[in-house]
C-alpha cells in the first residue's frame, strides 16, 4: 500500500501552528518573519522524522514555471535520439518551452546525478530513456510532482507515462519476412541488455522462428562494452562459426553497420549468400548496394506524442493524474538486401 504523502497542512496540524508559518520556514523566510529558532527547529525535526518532501508543483506555483524540459537519453549523438531531439526542440519552442539535452551513456550513476542536478534547478519536466536501476529515482520524481515521460523503453515496475514503439511485433514481422523469402537459417545479432525494448526484440525473433520450426542462431553483443573493431571481430566470428546462415537480423542499426563490414570482408554476397534486415532504419541504408531492408521507427509521430504527452502532464500540473501509455507501430521497408533470388 502506497505511503500517504505529507502535506504542509499535515505538518501545521501536527505541530498546532499555522500553514503560513510552516510555509515561511520551508521557503527560508523564517528569520525575516521573526519566527523563533525553537519553532524552526520543531518544524525541521518533524520534517526529518516524517520524510516530508516539498511538492515540485507547490514550488513551481511559488517560484514560477521555468518553462524548461530535460531531454535525457542514452547518447544524444545517436542518429535516432538526435533526430527525436531536433523534432522535440521545434515543438517545445512553438509551445514556449526550452529543452536541455544530456546523455547518460546508459550509466545509472550518471543518470541519477543528472536528475539530481536538474531537480534543484526547478525544471518543469523530464523526458527520459531510462538506464537500468533507475526505478527508485523515477518514482521519487513522480512523488515530488514532476512531469515524467519515458520513451524508447519503459519500466514495468514503475507506474509512469511512456511513449514507445511496438518492438516485439516488429521483430516478429521482420523475421517472418525473411522466412517468406525462403530463408531457413536466420541469425539474430543482438544487444545483450536488460532494457525492455531489447528483450522484446529478442522475443519477437524467437516467436517467429518457433512458429516456423526453425533453429535459433543468436549472437549476444555486450552493450557498448566493445570497441567497433571488437564488435566487428565478434560478428565475423559468429558468421564463420555458422556457415549455414542464409539471413541475419540486426536488432540495432549500429550493429548492422559493423555486420555489413563483416559480410563484405568475408566475401559474402547480399542477398544471394546472406539476406539482411536491420531494426531502426537509417539514411545510409539507402546508399548501400543493395539497399538494406530496415524497420523504420516513426520519428515525427514519436516526437509529436512526446511533446503532446508532456504538455498534457504539465497541464495536469505535473501530478501524473493523466497516465500516458502510447505504443506506436513501426514500418518494415523491404529492400534489395532481403529479397532472395530463387529458393534456398
CATH topology of the largest domain: Rossmann fold
Rounded to the nearest angstrom, the radius of gyration is 25 Å
CATH homologous superfamily of the largest domain - what is it?
Response regulator
SSE class: alpha/beta
Could you give the order of the helices and strands?
A: HHHHEHEHEHEEHEHEHEHEEHEE
The N- and C-terminal alpha carbons lie at a distance of 58 Å
Arrangement of strands in the largest sheet: 2-1-3-4-5-11
CATH class of the largest domain: Alpha Beta
Question: Which CATH-level-2 architecture of the largest domain?
Answer: 3-Layer(aba) Sandwich
Walk me through the structure:
It contains 12 helices and 12 strands. The chain is of the alpha/beta class and 344 residues long. It has 3 domains: 8-52, no CATH class; 64-165 and 300-328, Response regulator (Rossmann fold, 3-Layer(aba) Sandwich); 167-297, Response regulator (Rossmann fold, 3-Layer(aba) Sandwich), CATH 3.40.50. The chain has a 6-stranded parallel sheet with strand order 2-1-3-4-5-11, sandwiched between helices. The chain has a 6-stranded mixed sheet with strand order 7-6-8-9-10-12, with helices on both faces. Strand 8, helix 11 and strand 9 form a beta-alpha-beta unit. Helix 1 (8-15) packs across helix 2, helix 5 (79-94) packs across helix 12 (299-315) and helix 8 (167-180) packs parallel to helix 9 (196-211). The longest helix is centred in the last third of the chain and has 17 residues, at 299-315. It is elongated. The model has no long low-confidence stretch (mean pLDDT 88). One of its GO terms (molecular function) is DNA-binding transcription factor activity.
Amino acid at each position: 500500500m502506497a505511503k500517504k504523502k505529507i502535506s504542509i497542512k499535515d505538518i501545521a496540524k501536527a505541530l498546532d501552528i499555522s500553514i503560513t508559518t510552516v510555509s515561511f520556514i520551508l521557503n527560508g523566510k523564517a528569520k525575516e518573519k521573526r519566527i523563533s529558532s525553537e519553532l524552526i527547529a520543531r518544524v525541521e525535526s518533524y520534517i526529518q522524522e516524517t520524510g516530508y518532501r516539498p511538492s515540485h508543483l507547490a514550488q513551481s506555483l511559488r517560484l514560477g514555471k521555468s518553462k524548461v524540459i530535460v531531454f535525457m537519453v542514452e547518447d544524444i549523438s545517436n542518429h535516432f535520439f538526435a533526430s527525436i531531439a531536433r523534432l522535440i526542440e521545434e515543438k517545445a519552442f512553438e509551445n514556449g518551452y526550452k529543452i536541455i539535452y544530456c546523455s547518460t551513456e546508459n550509466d545509472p550513476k550518471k543518470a541519477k546525478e543528472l536528475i539530481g542536478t536538474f531537480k534543484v534547478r526547478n525544471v518543469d519536466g523530464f523526458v527520459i530513456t531510462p538506464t537500468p536501476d533507475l526505478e527508485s529515482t523515477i518514482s521519487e520524481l513522480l512523488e515530488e510532482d514532476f512531469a515524467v515521460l519515458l520513451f524508447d523503453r519503459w519500466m514495468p515496475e514503475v507506474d509512469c507515462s511512456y511513449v514507445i514503439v511496438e518492438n516485439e511485433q516488429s521483430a516478429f514481422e521482420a523475421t517472418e519476412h525473411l522466412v517468406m523469402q525462403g530463408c531457413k537459417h536466420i541469425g539474430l545479432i543482438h544487444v545483450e541488455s536488460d532494457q525492455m525494448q531489447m528483450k522484446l526484440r529478442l522475443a519477437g525473433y524467437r516467436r517467429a522462428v518457433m512458429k516456423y520450426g526453425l533453429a535459433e542462431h543468436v549472437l549476444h553483443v555486450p552493450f557498448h562494452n566493445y570497441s567497433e573493431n571488437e564488435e566487428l571481430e565478434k560478428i565475423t566470428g559468429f558468421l564463420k562459426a555458422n556457415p549455414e546462415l542464409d539471413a541475419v537480423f540486426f536488432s540495432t542499426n549500429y550493429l548492422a553497420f559493423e555486420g555489413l563490414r563483416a559480410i563484405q570482408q568475408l566475401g559474402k554476397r547480399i542477398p544471394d549468400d546472406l539476406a539482411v534486415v536491420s531494426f531502426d532504419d537509417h539514411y545510409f541504408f539507402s546508399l548501400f548496394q543493395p539497399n538494406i531492408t530496415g524497420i523504420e521507427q516513426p520519428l515525427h509521430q514519436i516526437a509529436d506524442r512526446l511533446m503532446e504527452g508532456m504538455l498534457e502532464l504539465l497541464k495536469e500540473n505535473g501530478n501524473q493524474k493523466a497516465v500516458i501509455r502510447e505504443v506506436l507501430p513501426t514500418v518494415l521497408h523491404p529492400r534489395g538486401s532481403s529479397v532472395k533470388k530463387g529458393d534456398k
